[in-house]
Request: fold
Amino acid sequence: MANAAYAKAMATIDSEVVSSIAELLSARCNTAYARGDKDTCKRYLKFMTILVNHHLDAAATTSACLATMCGLVNVKEDGVSTWAIMKHLLSGASRYQVLHGLLGLLEAPVPPFVARGAVFFVGMSSWGSQRVASLEVGWCTILRSLLPAVQSPHGMVIFEVVLSLQRLIKKYGDQMLIEWDLVFDYLHRLFPWMAVSPHVPNENGAASAAVGHVPDRLADELLDTLLLAEALHQPKLHSDQPASHRRFQGNMHDLYALVELYIEYCPVATVGNLVAFRAEGCTPASDSKWLTSLHDLLTTFFASTSVDVSIRLQALKVLDNVLKLCHHICDDRVLDDVFVPHLQLVHDDSDRQVRDAGLELIVTVACDVDSVKFYALVDMLHVAATTSKFVDAQHKAMNGLTTLFRAGFQHIPSTRCVRIFELLTGYVVTHRDPVMRGMAITCLRQVCSANASFHMLLSEDCREAADKASSDVTMASPFLMAARGSMAKASVATLPIPKLVVAALTMVSTETSSTNFHIAVDVLVRMVENRYVLHDVDVNDMVAKLVSCVECRAFGRAAATHEAGVAHSVRRTRTTDSHVIEDADSEPDKSAMWLKVLRTQYLQRGLDLLLLMASYQSQLTAAVQHRVLLTFVSALDFEPTVSESRPPTLAATSSAGMKRTKSAMEDLSAAHVEALQAAETKLVHTVTRGLGVAAIMLPAQVVAEFPTILNSIVHRLCAPVKDGAGWTSVDIASLCLSLLLHFLHALPRTASLADAATDGDFETVSGNDDVCAAFALRALCRPASKYMASLALLVLMQIFIQASARRRNHIARLVLPQLQTQPQKTVLVDTAVDFIATHLHLNAAALCPPSTQSLELVAKHRRIRSWFHRRSIMTLSTDDQGASFVTVRHAAVAHTWPLPRDANPMHVMTMLFGMDPLDLHSASMHRLVEGEALTRALAVLDRSPWHETHKVGVLYVPHNQATERDLLDVVGGSQRYLSFLRGLGDMVPLHHLVGYNGGLDVSASQSDGKFGLVYRDAITHVMFHVATFMETDESAEARRHGKKRHIGNDYVHIEYLDYDQHHDENDVIPSLSGQFSDVRIFVQPLDGDLFRTRVECKHPTDNMPPFGPLHGVQIVPSYMVATAVRLTAIHANLACRVVHQDRFELVLNIEDRLKQISQIGTRFVDHVTPSHDHASAV
Reply:
């Protein structure tokens, strides 16, 4: 009605009346707005439109109308219309009056939605998207005028203020100058609203329903306003303007002070920008209080665990950069005031990334620091490694210490490495974590050697690619020494190697981790092999501790127990996962069996280490040497494991699943037994090698302990099984026979001391002989293999031939009856009988090689008759002068006796054998048919030696890059090489060589050189094919061919490496190519009177019997190296013959001669010649 009246009489109505009407309608509209009457609100807007259209601004701009308009703008349906009316008013002549009225509403006690509308109208018209250009009012003025709205307690008002600020910054942020101060003031004032919880909307009022959800976003919008300002500070992406162009022209310090105020709500990127800005003031060139600023930065952004991890890492990076800038200037101040206080407990930080980064920073700074602050940093790592409650922090700290040690190895001050070295040795012994102990001992393993000038060496593994083998890169430190007083300089320090020795020895007896145990053993092995590093170590004390550890069976005991427990738990876990139920009673037995396997293996490693200490004999006291010997002797005192038979089938009532379970259990138990037997065999092999070396080094002490050794062999290791017909372990029995044979070679009087024995000790000597002979006899009569029988025969022959006449008769009475009464005689048994029978009354002078020249002369005689008689062949012959001879050929000996000229040979035969003078035949004498065939057979027999013969190749390697041509062309050699050859055997002219020649040319042509190297004892002959001796006048190619023809066909090669380079297991050492060379024995001279020996086998150890006394890598004194190498070559050659027995039957020479004699007796016996022909022949 008012609208209609005013439209009809607008010229007649007074303006005051119109204003009164407008105020009245505004009050009515406010009432309708409160109750949600939208129609009334729309009619009121039409009224205001008429007022505006008729330029009645005085009525439209009253406080009541402006307040109503500010309220209606909050209604979604009327907001656009309301803004259109207000924009018209703000664009008109009374625009400033309208603006003043709107600002006045902010100071009046109006409802919050009215204040919100006022803020909206002011902001939108001043800098919003529909800004009124005619309003020429500065932004600062408007911002100051809006300050009363900031003090409003209503969230919707504050929310609109924030939105208004956002509009200003988004549109005109890069043009704002002093306005930023007001904006920052707004944000400071509004910060308490960040912690206000959003209000629940009031469902009773329309106004509340319209704006009730706004406070939910208040904190986010307030933070977005700050981020808009911060974003202007960052370079704009994809902009043509240079990066140095600043879009933000306010005060940076005020901006980031505000960011720091809002830090707990800011995103990580913004906080990172704050840290970067604060970092600019943390350098000496930026501010005099830079150190305080740096301290505050670390306190704020690193020390607090509530800060995001990326920010904390950024703060650490700032600290790192500052330290780099202050290097050599004031880094000590940074370390004392900032670094140490903030990082000394970083190992206990709750975040792993922070722990890792902090510890890495400590290591990095320690690598670069040049002052004494290094030790403070090392102490920080030490505390982290020992006290941190996080295992990963301990590991990180240990990695840092090892890195520092390697980094400072070649630099000064050398005391730094000494400090870390002491810490590492302490961790090896005392740290609770096995991983930490492993890391420490692994680092120490790299620095457990020194060069000849006692400078410490650091070895590191380098891998160029995944498919390439690793190689060691060795660095020598000019400042770290292994020996005190080796270089008197202030910059030189001595590493406490004795502490490392004690730590390693402690670890091998107490370490629970098998991996760490093996590393500790490797450390000791490397140190012993290197020798220089042990210059300041009391070797007697070291060996005594090692002996105690091995004697008490503590060597690896803890590691074996732990590893067996782990394996047992893993097996049970796998069994449970596969739904297999095992017998609970069998589990402890299997675990105990596996524990026994491991302890046996570890004990063998301990004995290997003791054997390696043999090179220190000159430094050991007699008491320590005797303890070492007793340790090896006591290791023989055990009974080998015997495989128990198991029932072939199970009860019929068992289910199929239970059958599979029981079968798996039986297979597992059998595998454990096999593993234990293999471990015991390796243990006995090591012990026999050790005793073999002791026989060369300590012959008198070995002789004294021989009864104990013999008792352990016969009654423990090789005790008969229940039925008495078998052996507990064939390999162990063979090893014991090899040991006895070695004793008989190295200690010729061990088994029989009758020549020096008195009547009082004869019984003792006799007892040892009897036990040895009985053991060899049992192995010969009941062998488990041809190899065992061959060894037993060689032992029996050696015992018998070394005995005096008095002892031989006793041994023959003990042995012969048992050999002759064997139900099933083998060729070797017959050979033993023949040997004893032919050597029983043979004097020592006759124990020489068969006289090949004398047999050749006999072959030229006119043979009268030959007979086969009891495993021998007897021949009567005459020479050109009419002299008569009797030649007897046995498997073990051949001899010719001249007869008196007046004696009739047949008369002698008749008198000796009771032959019928008419038919010259008896029951025991079988005449042989004369002829060319018999002549050839006897010639072959005469050329077959009865001694056990071996041929061994010897090569001289002048340098590590030598080719096969170089090895065959080299002549001569060093003085130590020649001394080594003299120890192997005797150098004799080949054309004067009598007996076995190994295929060399012994004629006057000298096609294989002038001299040969020969070794002979009572039953063994060895011909060494020495490449440097085989020089002739032939062409170079012919000489090479001849050398390779001999050496290339030898099973065993001895290579003398006359250079200093140490070879690892994977290194390729120059050698000859060929089908054989199954065993290579490398001999390398070291400084002093020592040699490094190394034995390599081409074939797997499962196919080749173990041999000794040398095996693997050993260090031996010069006085025994030739003997040890020769004995090893002899036993290795016999083992190689076992490997090739499928192609070449394993037959001893004396056995082969017996076979030839038997074949001749069978083949050439005359069965057809009548008796009168016999007489006429005579």
